[in-house]
Write a structure and sequence with these properties.
Layout: H1 5-15, E1 18-23, H2 28-39, E2 43-49, H3 51-56, E3 63-66, H4 69-81, E4 87-90, H5 95-102, E5 116-122, E6 130-133, H6 143-159, E7 166-170, H7 181-194, E8 202-207, H8 209-213, H9 215-221, E9 233-235, H10 239-251, E10 256-262, E11 268-270, H11 277-291
Parallel strand pairs: 1-2, 1-4, 2-3, 4-11, 6-9, 7-8, 7-9
Antiparallel strand pairs: 5-6, 5-10
């Protein structure tokens, strides 16, 4: 089982380099991330964007496809669709526009499955890698969507070497409350997992975040659970909870983090301008490993 980003990067080096297209890859952030990942032997970048800007910003060493706007996005995802690239990365464009291209019916990477964002977190306060989903795409998912979100996370967990992932369905409280719909959803999903409707995993909820990751909280509250205190995957109620949790762990807890989009035909990496150099490299390495889920 992979337990750190150092191990993830080393594993990705064994699997790489993978061909990656960068949609609207004519910005310094994308070019710098590609240079660092290429130097580590992880990727072969193909920048799809304004050629003059790419060259001016230091990306002339890479293969360049001259395109702008929506066409740059569609060309980047289409190259993955037809096998000319293994994965796609968002460059200087908005998330909604990028996802629209990924989901394009004719040129995109639509599979019929729900797309979801998975963050992988390495914290000095936790004994293993922790997956958190979905803090990036699905605003307020219903039960069916949550099932897809869980399945996407389970696939990645398996690739990280987690044999029987422990899934915590988190909420503000660990009891059923009709005013908190996420507690009802969690109870239903936990029962579905108990009946093997969600594949090879242990799943429990609703659980407070403290119960999901703190053995001491489990001891104090007297909760009996195969998941509590030892979760591999945290499933949050909505996008706000996931986004806030991940950023709090990053900026207040000093965690290392990476993320990518699952559920498409090929892995899709989304970087933020504010991401550290380490986060960018971690995310690309995670995408390289995720390629093996799709055999690309």
């Amino acid at each position: 089982m992979l337990r750190s980003f150092k191990e993830i990067i080393e594993e990705a080096k064994k699997l790489g380099p993978k061909r990656i297209t960068v949609a609207c890859g004519d910005d310094e952030v994308s070019i710098e991330a590609c240079k660092n990942a290429k130097n580590e032997g992880l990727i072969i970048p193909i920048l799809v964007g304004d050629k003059s800007k790419i060259i001016a910003k230091g990306g002339g060493e890479f293969e360049i496809i001259d395109a702008v706007g929506d066409e740059a996005i569609l060309m980047a995802v289409e190259m993955a669709r037809i096998g000319e690239a293994d994965m796609v990365m968002k460059g200087r464009t908005s998330t909604p526009k990028f996802l629209k291209g990924v989901l394009d019916k004719e040129r995109g990477l639509r599979t019929g499955r729900t797309l979801s964002h998975i963050a992988v977190i390495e914290s000095k306060f936790y004994h293993k890698l922790l997956l958190l989903t979905d803090g990036g795409i699905n605003i307020k998912p219903d039960i069916k969507t949550k099932m897809d979100i869980i399945m996407n996370a389970l696939e990645l967990a398996g690739k990280l070497g987690i044999e029987r992932p422990k899934v915590a369905l988190v909420a503000a409280i660990e009891t059923i409350n009709e005013d908190l719909s996420e507690t009802i959803d969690a109870a239903i999903l936990a029962k579905a997992g108990e009946r093997n409707q969600l594949g090879n995993c242990e799943i429990d909820g609703p659980l407070g975040m403290d119960l999901a990751i703190s053995p001491e909280s489990v001891r104090i509250k007297g909760i009996k659970s195969k998941v509590a205190g030892d979760a591999d995957i945290i499933v949050v109620p909505d996008i706000s909870c996931g986004n806030i949790s991940a950023k709090a762990l990053l900026y207040l807890g000093g965690a290392n983090i990476a993320g990518f989009i699952a559920g498409a035909l090929n892995p899709c990496v989304m970087l933020s301008r504010s991401d550290s150099k380490e986060t960018k490299l971690n995310s690309i390495a995670l995408g390289v490993i995720a390629c093996e889920l799709w055999n690309v």
